[in-house]
Structures are given as C-alpha cells and as structure tokens.
C-alpha cells in the first residue's frame, strides 16, 4: 500500500478514492472518542468533516503487516493543529484494521509549567 497516497487522500477528503484502500469488512476505531466505524461511515466522517485541511507525515514505522503513521493535521491558516497516531493493519495490500488516536495540540498545562520541568519540542 502506498501510505503517502493514502495520507493525501485522507487529508484532501477524497471520497472517491478512500474506500479503495480498505477491505469491505474493515472497522476503523477512533479510541479517543470511543467510536467504531464501517468503511462507509469512516469515509463519511472524514470527508464531511468541515473545512479544508493540510497535513504532514511526521513518522512512519513498518512492522510486518502493520504500519504506524504519525501525522500532523491543520487548516490552511494554521489556526489550530492536531496529531494522529494510526495503527494500520494490512491484508494483501489493503487495510484490514485501522486504529487511530487523535489529539488537539496545545501548551503544557499550568501545573506542569509551575513545576519548571520539560521544554518545548518545537519552537512555535
């Protein structure tokens, strides 16, 4: 599977091509919101999400039949950003399972700042 093409089709909300990456019986799980989708539901949730999006792949690791992708997603004006970690299980070149963990990017909480520990990973 071409992981870069899949990522691009997710980010650009390509309703026509997205289903082609999945087996018909695949389930997609978004663990942070406790949701499980069929492929059709996933395509609808992804493609009907409001706005236009940009995104970068920050890391890809492959382990046998599993691809782990870390990505950053943001609107064109960069007014917000989100990170996703995707565990993509493949069967014969198509996705048979997709588990994703989405998070808003934000500053460290005040209680940790007050402790005086840690430092930013990236300058903003």
Report on the structure:
- By secondary structure, this protein is of the alpha+beta class.
- It has one domain (3-115): Nuclear Transport Factor 2, Chain: A, CATH 3.10.450.50.
- 19% of the residues lie in helices and 43% in strands.
- The chain is built from 3 helices and 6 strands; from the N terminus they run αββαββββα.
- It has helices at residues 3-11, 39-47, 110-115; strands at 22-30, 35-38, 54-63, 66-74, 82-91, 94-104.
- The chain has a 6-stranded mixed beta sheet.
- A hairpin with a 7-residue loop joins strand 4 and strand 5.
- It starts with a helix and ends in a 9-residue tail after the last helix.
- The mean pLDDT is 95.
SSE layout and pairing:
Layout: H1 3-11, E1 22-30, E2 35-38, H2 39-47, E3 54-63, E4 66-74, E5 82-91, E6 94-104, H3 110-115
The value of Rg in angstroms is: 16 Å
Distance between the termini: 34 Å
Unreliable sequence segments: none
CATH architecture: Roll
| Number of E-state strands | 6
Indicate the mean pLDDT: 95
> What is the class in the CATH system?
Alpha Beta
Sheet bearing the most strands, described? 6 strands, mixed
The oligomerization state is single chain
Question: What is the helix content?
Answer: 10-25%
Strand order of the largest sheet: 2-1-6-5-4-3
* Tally of DSSP helical segments: 3
Shape: globular
Structural class: alpha+beta
Strand content: 35-45%
Number of domains: 1
Give the topology string: H per helix, E per strand.
Answer: HEEHEEEEH
CATH topology: Nuclear Transport Factor 2, Chain: A
């Amino acid at each position: 599977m071409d992981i870069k093409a899949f990522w691009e089709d997710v980010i650009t909300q390509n309703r026509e091509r997205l289903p082609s990456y999945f087996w018909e019986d695949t389930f997609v799980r978004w663990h942070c919101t406790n949701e499980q989708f069929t492929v059709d539901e996933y395509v609808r949730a992804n493609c009907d999400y409001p706005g236009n999006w940009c995104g970068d792949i920050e890391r890809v690791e492959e382990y046998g039949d599993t691809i782990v992708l870390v990505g950053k997603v943001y609107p064109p004006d960069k007014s917000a950003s989100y990170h996703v970690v995707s565990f993509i299980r493949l069967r014969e070149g198509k996705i048979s399972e997709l588990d994703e963990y989405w998070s808003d990017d934000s500053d460290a909480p005040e209680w940790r700042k007050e402790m005086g520990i840690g430092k930013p990973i990236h300058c903003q």
